[in-house]
Amino acid sequence: MQIDATVSARINMMRIVLITGIIFVHVPYDPATSPYAGTFGGLDWLRVFLADSLFRIGVPCLSAISGYLLFHRGFEAFDYRRTLRTKASTILLPFLLWNTAFLALVYLAQWRGIGFGYLPDVVNATPRELMNLGLAVETWPINIPLYFLRDLLLCLVLSPLIALAVMRYPRTVLALMLAFAVLPVPSGIFLKKSILFGFSLGAALALHRVDIRRLDRFALPVVSAVLAMAVLLAALLYAHGPEFPVWLDMLRGMAAIAGIFGAWAFSALLIRTRAGQALSRLGGLSFWIFCGHYPLLILFWMVWNRLAIPDYPLFYAASPVLALAVLVSTHAAARRFAPALHAILTGRRMGERKRAAAGRHQHPEMKPAGSIAQRR
Question: What is the pTM (predicted TM-score) of this model?
Fold first, then answer.
């Protein structure tokens, strides 16, 4: 099953939309400015809605995209060794470079007495703690959002087993993985259980040749239902947070997974607009934003506190915009002045011009959709 140009454009567009949303998940705050403190009224509810409800769909949705793209040509065309070799350069190497570079910067800052309290203590960390901060073997990497790449690599290592399971027993396997993702059970080797479910769902849709555009005619009601669910969830979270009862945490997990369908339905509406078409052509920018936004937000938070500005709502509004501005400009500069480095840091994800050039040598339905690969 080939991916036509429209589906490819929708996938690229949704990456940039979801990853931009993930920025709001990681905007820093302290206990005094927590959205659950209720200090800022309606703004606090909005923060809960964006960070703890609506944009939590990003991780499972990006996982589903990865699973779908890996198997969209069928299991017969799947080459496990080639996949591992390719993903070593497109996912593993960028993960190591972005995360270890941030770890080194944090070490240098803390060695000079800067940054303690904002990030884990790197200077006094044990070798095991440093290994985890750098490689995320057991716990979160120091660049927290990159846990998605770590768990995605695990899915890729397990991909033949996942594919065989969802091919033979799709309903049973997905039901078990959904239960694993939502129920309060140990996560095992994964840091975020919903990544395994999302990846498996995407693989199942591809391997069973499900037409993922069948949902398009119901796009508006599906988007409306998911949005209403996110609003209701935010109200419950705001009322019970910051420590959630087990049933509410399970409900949050279910809502994030249900958001996969809402995000895809939304892409059917957005791709028809000029803005959607423009977003679909941004190439490796989404990956650059994904890998670089967290260190920038932490830097902004440190500077903000150093300046002792009390107006947190201003920080909340300005920091995502400023982070996007810095990341868009640095991405463009790296692509122009250091193309080799840009290629490595983005996992060789092609920009618009290169994709268009590649498309001239392929069948229209064979244009590459690229790949990405999605906080706590």
Answer: 0.90
